[in-house]
Amino acid sequence: MLQPCNGPCLFVIQARSGPVSGSSYQQLSLKLLFFSKLSYSLLLQSSTIVETAITIVVNNIRSTTTRLEIASSTLNDLVIHPPASEILVPLTASLYVPATLQDSTYVLIDVGTGYLIEKTMDEGKDYCERKINLLK
Question: Could you list the residue ranges that cross the membrane (predicted)?
Fold first, then answer.
């Protein structure tokens, strides 16, 4: 049974895995650590881990925002091209293939996990702008 946290403390969840009768299991244990009982080096190491995790999350948000801004800009560029225009379609950040624009009335939006939704051009722009504003 855990004691109440009366002061600066940290909950630590430890997971251990191992085989049981040919299958695997995972055991979780919850410990309560008081900051006053932790060594300086452990506190420093913990803060470094947290700082690294936060940096990774912030970089992912910046990267996602940049990709959405590029998508929004691309949608704005598609409006000025008439049907049957030759365009370059990005497959990756550095690989493009030529294509012929058939219709720019509708766009497909990747909403995650492999799902694409057909929207009008204006709805597509609105989607990008809402996501950009959410991330900023």
Answer: none
